[in-house]
Amino acid sequence: MLKKMLSQLMAVALSSSILLSTMATNFASQFQPLTIWTKMEIRPAQNTLYANTTSPGSVFIINATVVNVTDLQMWQLKLAWDPTLLNFSRIWLPSDHVFAASGKSMITPPPTVELGNVTWGCTYMNSPYWTFNGTGTLCQIELKILTPPVSLPVTCNLTLAELGYATYLVNGAGYDISFTAENGQFTYIDELSVSINPTSKDVNPGGNATFTASVSKGALPYKYQWYFKYPNGTEVEVVSAENQTSWVCYSINETGIHWVTVMVTDKANTRVNVSATIRISPLLIALSPSLPIVDVNTAVTFAVTITGDSPPYNIQWYRNSTEVPSLTNETIVQFNFTQVGRETIKVAVTDSALINRSDQTDVIVLSPATTQLEIIPDPATFYTNMTRVGDRISVNVTVVDVNELESWQIRFTWDPTLLEYSQTLLPFDHAFSGAVAAGKALIIPPPIVGSGYVIFNCTIDNDEPYWMFNGTGTLCQIELETLIQPAPTSSCVLSLVEKYSNNGTSLSKLHSEAVSFAIANATYNYILISHVSHSILGFIVETYSNVSILEQSVTANVTEKSIQFNAYGATGTGAYVNVTVPKELLVGPYTVFVNNSLVTAQITEDVDNVSVYVEFEFSSACTIKIRGTLIMSSHDVAVVSVTLSKTIVGQGFSTHINVTVANLGDLAETFNLTLYADMAVIVTFENINLANGNSLTITFIWNITGFNKGNFTITAYAWPVSDEAETDNNTFNESWVFVTIAGDVTSTVPDVPDGKVDMRDIGALCGKFGTTPSSPNWDTNYDINDDDLVNMRDIGLACNNFMKT
């Protein structure tokens, strides 16, 4: 009997098949039908869901389909899946299922649902006799997505399990129908993503352009289709292949905008296309400088460079988004920056083809500098008769009065015909040595050395707690070597240049915030052949010459107001001398004589000294004389100020007079001081001793008793001392006082009494009642009795003089 059943089943297997299929709800899918004998299939065979559009809880539907079956009366299936990815939702007979045409009542037991599988079947009472033949849907199954997988892509098989035992087909005679199973597959992937690089390309006529497609996610493999569109709108497909990730467009000549498009199709038949543009004969502009940093009240010149083959160009400049009407069609412009902060400069260019381009830059404007960078050479002078090739000089770069310094860079320059670079180093006490002691590392790139310059920088490798330098200190030392034997009187300027630029000199706070600073450069001088220093009246006079000068020959003539000295050398030789004289000893205008003949000299001055350089032809002993207008220490006493505690004083009462005197001369002085009220002497102070450079304030209480009512000018007079030339500052007469009846403190003119006591005065005194020098509304003129308090005593004095004049 069993063999008979098996043979019948095999016979049926030659003529029929059964399938199970899947159908996605709202998701991309693909299906390629396959019909061989009798099959049970899952349709679609490949079900693809995209992670960026599918969330946990989403569902999709699969169809269980039978293919090429004969005499089917009953079926059962068991579908299995990965329970970590999917969960059972429901199973049912669709309206067009295989038994729907029978008109019979279906027998469908409740589905058996287990973790990762479901078992279900269907049959009917077969009287009158009816069976299904052909291809059709057995049932539909809905599955739910549990959670997106951690990494993509992920594949989950949808398997027809336990064939012949839990999954089977039965004919009208009760025998199993032989079939093959075609399982399904659920794939969970990221959505196809495509980009093109570059997105735009400017090309000159006849040039080439290469474009590359970057593809990720989706379902492998990918197919690439490249298209090219001309400016007139004509589009052609130029290549179609699986591995064509790049495409080169050669020899483009037609002007205008061209389009390049790549369409990528993945295995799930998802298509994504992206495009790029090619522009022939582009308009290109460049604005310079870029992101300049400048001091306030600085003018900056900007330039725009324009390239393209469609002139003429229309140019418009903007400042802080505002059009500058006066700057039209200018390629070079200048802006003054008078406000601290950040501004924006923009230039817009339009060519004759109406192509527009713009470029802009921010300008950082720093506040007035309180910090200074100084170059301090040691020594400051090379003596030409002692200097050898290869001798070294050391230069300190010092920062003065800086706050929160974290990074610095210098671009240091010199004359490369005189000096050459040796080395740059940080001294042991450099500005950032404290950061090293605090455990911070320093970032010190190797110096960049060129002809006549070196670029060197240092930065604190900062993290919390931050360390920054405050104050004055040495940034670095630079050693230079003499390159040639310098000529007499030659010099070499040592400079810090390109302030605030990327390759120049800059100071920065935390987070690269620029520090405003000034620069004090230095000059190396090659001037000395013979050096004589001589003290005259306590001052040092220095002479530099290529001939001999004896120290004892350097003398001062007080009567003639001159400095002179003798020079000795071979007759007929060219000679020069450079003399430095303190201005405290000799002031200009200056005249120079050689052997009593007036000669032309080069005269330079600074705050403290005058330098006189003269050339002459030597003839035996020569006498050089420099004549000025003053040759002695100065004597100068002065009255600096006169102040009174009150400018309105009642008869019989007093005021304080404060007089400040100063010794502006070079020597200590003893002098007298007299105070006057108009022409009347108030008091004389005798034998006031005052060291040079010092000042003294004298306070005198002046009792008005004996002075008539009226307005008096108070004058202080310092008696001139011996040899004092400047006497204009000995007198100070800018103070005055009103003497009036006690209690008269007001009038219609502020701080001027009207000569009588009335209710205005009494009311004003009452308004100041109780005030003292510490009160905000204190007025000494209301303190009639001068006891530092306005009270009833002062009001009583006014009342006693009521209506008196």
Question: In words, what does this structure look like?
Answer:
4% of the residues lie in helices and 53% in strands. It has 805 residues and is mainly beta. α3 runs antiparallel to α4. The protein has seven domains: 2-189, Sandwich (Immunoglobulin-like), CATH 2.60.40; 193-280, Immunoglobulin-like, CATH 2.60.40; 284-366, Immunoglobulins (Immunoglobulin-like), CATH 2.60.40.10; 372-526, Immunoglobulin-like (Sandwich); 530-627, Immunoglobulin-like; 633-740, Sandwich (Immunoglobulin-like); 743-805, Orthogonal Bundle (Type 1 dockerin domain), CATH 1.10.1330.
Fill in the CATH topology of the largest domain: Immunoglobulin-like
Q: Between the first and last Cα atoms, what is the distance in angstroms?
A: 157 Å
Helix content: under 10%
Structural class: mainly beta
Radius of gyration: 52 Å
Shape: elongated
Rounded mean pLDDT score: 83
Output the number of helix runs: 4
Relative strand content: over 45%
CATH class of the largest domain, please? Mainly Beta
Compute the number of structural domains. 7
Number of strands: 61
pLDDT < 50 stretches = 1-36, 527-534
By CATH, the architecture of the largest domain is named Sandwich
- Please summarize the sheet with the most strands: 13 strands, mixed
